[in-house]
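Task: sequence design from structure.
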């Protein structure tokens, strides 16, 4: 189900509000050290807790990436490498992550599954060390509500994507339903302790990162996660 395609309408303006470009994206604030600590602890149980429940979205996202043979793909926040086996074997994937514990799990997975087209690097998504235009596709599954500064991460994703390439964000964002949004806001200072902010504001994020997606699909069950696809102009 596509929420909208390319063009903005007056309805979008109503949804976004006039302060979308400046308002706080979440009530919760985190730092890299805090996030790293959380994921060091989560590494052992991640695949059980966040594995099957979020997997349909991962599968749908891989289709959305439209990977062609030989494509250079960057996965931001590769975690335990849970997506590694989903990539076609004839593309070249670079997976980066902040957490050494998560990367260690990813290394074990690649060895266990005999996957050779994925390389892993320790790196901060908000300060990628790749030159501009390095990748054909840049993909951030379930990461953008984890990082301290989602707007910087989105800018970095766009910077390292080649012109005409895709950058795709899979994430849960705050509901547009007022009651649910209140609950998500109230929970967010607690959910950061299990790895994510539950109240990230999608319209505000898009406005502040200066992103105009070509599509936004709702994924998973219940369909409260968004698959946001952008093309670098
Ligand atoms: C919810 S997990 C997502 C893992 C995987 N992509 C998936 O599909 O399940 C978020 C990952 O982002 C990583 N992460 C958090 N902040 C980061 C940052 N600033 N730079 C790179 N990775 C980061 C965490 O260590 C964790 O592995």
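Answer:
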């Amino acid at each position: 189900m596509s929420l909208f395609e390319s063009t903005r309408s007056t309805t979008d303006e109503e949804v976004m509000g006039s302060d979308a470009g400046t308002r706080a994206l979440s009530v919760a604030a985190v730092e890299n050290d805090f996030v790293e600590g959380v994921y060091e602890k989560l590494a052992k149980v991640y695949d059980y807790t966040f594995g099957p429940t979020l997997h349909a979205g991962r599968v749908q996202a891989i289709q959305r990436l439209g990977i062609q043979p030989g494509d250079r793909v960057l996965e931001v926040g590769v975690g335990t490498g849970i997506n590694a086996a989903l990539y076609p074997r004839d593309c070249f994937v670079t997976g980066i992550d902040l957490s050494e514990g998560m990367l260690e799990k990813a290394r074990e997975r690649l060895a266990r599954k005999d996957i050779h087209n994925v390389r892993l690097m320790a790196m901060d998504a908000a300060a990628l060390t790749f030159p501009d235009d390095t990748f054909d596709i840049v993909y951030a599954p379930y990461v953008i509500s984890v990082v301290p500064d989602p707007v910087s991460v989105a800018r970095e994703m766009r910077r390292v994507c080649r012109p005409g390439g895709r950058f795709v964000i899979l994430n849960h964002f705050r509901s547009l339903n007022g009651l649910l949004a209140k609950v998500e806001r109230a929970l967010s200072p607690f959910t950061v302790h299990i790895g994510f902010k539950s109240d990230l504001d999608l319209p505000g994020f898009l406005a502040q990162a200066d992103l105009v997606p070509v599509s936004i699909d709702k994924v998973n069950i219940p369909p409260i996660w968004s698959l946001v696809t952008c093309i670098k102009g």
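Residues 32, 35, 39, 50, 58, 77-79, 82-83, 96-99, 102, 124-126, 141-143, 146-147, 195 surround S-adenosylmethionine (CB under 6 Å).
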